[in-house]
Design goal:
- By secondary structure, the protein is an alpha/beta fold.
- Helices cover 29% and strands 21% of the residues.
- It contains nine helices and eleven strands.
- The protein has helices spanning 20-30, 49-52, 80-90, 109-114, 117-120, 142-152, 171-178, 226-236, 256-266; strands at 13-15, 34-39, 42-48, 94-99, 102-108, 136-137, 156-161, 164-170, 219-220, 240-244, 250-255.
- The strands form four sheets. A three-stranded mixed sheet has the order 1-2-3. The chain has a three-stranded mixed sheet with strand order 6-7-8. The chain has a three-stranded mixed sheet with strand order 9-10-11.
């Protein structure tokens, strides 16, 4: 199987000189997290929400060019294992496919994983590497969690209350509400949605993370086969699962990137 077999032609395109507000609006309309960036008609890279949360920006002033990411490109004949390897090493879940210098579509990690079930079925979760577990407490502030994400590079943080798993927070969760306002600015302490208004900037030093976490946490046990991990991610449109022991205690996180590493070596 090659890139042409899982090519997605309806990608989001944006010009590097457009403002971030234009990009944010486009992605929101289409429910997307990534866009292909052009300078006029020339392809120059990609951009994604994951990058923005680590950048202090004012979306009404900053141009898309400032959050541009250079990523590897694919041809229609790029193999599944090579796609997985490039996604893993470049740390990106979406790559563009080019033909004669022209973008003809994109390939996403979830489609790569769905096409590699035979390779994944050979392994249990406890036989492959997973992400190191770092947790936060439900009453930690948004500001503290943002700092952890920025300084440590985490994308997913399980949330505990009295040692019990009660939710999960991701970089994108925080981005949706707090993109336009740096974490240390003063303002309202209202719940989700308040920060979106310029007149009600969220004071993240006072808001606790339980206002922004997802309470619908999908878990998996260490003995699960990787194809079952992939199926659960696909069913719930997730990029990570919390790994729990027999007492339902979080012991790790498995991500799309972990699965890509296996596919890169075995597909």
């Amino acid at each position: 199987m090659n890139a042409k077999d899982i090519l997605f032609k309806d990608y989001i395109a944006i010009d590097a000189n457009d403002r971030m507000t234009t990009l944010i609006g486009k992605l929101k309309v289409h429910g997307a997290h990534h866009a292909v960036v052009f300078d006029g008609k020339k392809y120059i890279g990609m951009t994604n929400k994951r990058r923005w949360v680590r950048t202090r920006i004012n979306s009404s002033e900053v141009k898309v060019r400032s959050v541009l990411v250079k990523v590897p490109t694919l041809s229609k004949e790029t193999s599944l294992s090579e796609i997985a390897r490039l996604m893993y090493t470049a740390d990106t879940p979406v790559l563009p496919v080019l033909e004669k210098g022209r973008v003809i579509g994109t390939v996403c990690a979830h489609d790569v994983i769905a096409s590699a079930q035979d390779a994944l079925r050979k392994y249990r979760l406890d036989e492959v590497s997973t992400e190191r577990l770092t947790t936060v407490n439900w009453d930690d502030t948004i500001a503290r969690v943002v700092n952890i994400i920025k300084n440590k590079g985490y994308d997913h943080l399980p949330v505990l209350e009295n040692g019990k798993l009660v939710g999960i927070v991701t970089a994108v969760d925080l981005l949706e509400t707090y993109l336009c306002f740096p974490p240390d600015r003063q303002g309202s302490t209202g719940r989700r949605g308040a920060a979106a208004s310029p007149t009600k900037e969220a004071h993240t030093a006072h808001i606790t993370i339980d206002n922004e976490m997802s309470r619908l946490v999908q878990t998996i046990t260490p003995g699960a086969r990787l194809d079952a991990v992939a199926d659960l991610m696909d069913k719930h449109h997730l990029s990570s699962l919390v790994v729990v022991d027999e007492k339902n205690k979080p012991v790790g996180i498995v991500t799309v990137k972990n699965l890509l590493k296996v596919i890169a070596k075995n597909a």
